[in-house]
Amino acid sequence: MREIQLREAKACLSAVIDDAVRGEPAIITRHGKREAVVLSFAEWERLSQVPSFGRLLMSAPLAPDDVSARDAAPMRDSGF
């Protein structure tokens, strides 16, 4: 992924967007600090559909033998 200064990105915004659509996102920097990323809408949609870790765990198919009796025992109070 290439880095481009904000001033340059403003001057050639159409080219930056064309690159993003072709699968080449760009990091926009301002005063040497990374501030934003330009990526295609399709890539943004794909990334925004990633389920949370909790949802992945809840949707995992578990069989009765997947959790041992030791793991299923209630937790002890540690006094904290």
UniProtKB/TrEMBL annotation:
SUPFAM superfamilies, A to Z: YefM-like
Protein name in the entry: Antitoxin
Function: Antitoxin component of a type II toxin-antitoxin (TA) system.
Natural source organism: Azospirillum griseum
Family: Belongs to the phD/YefM antitoxin family.
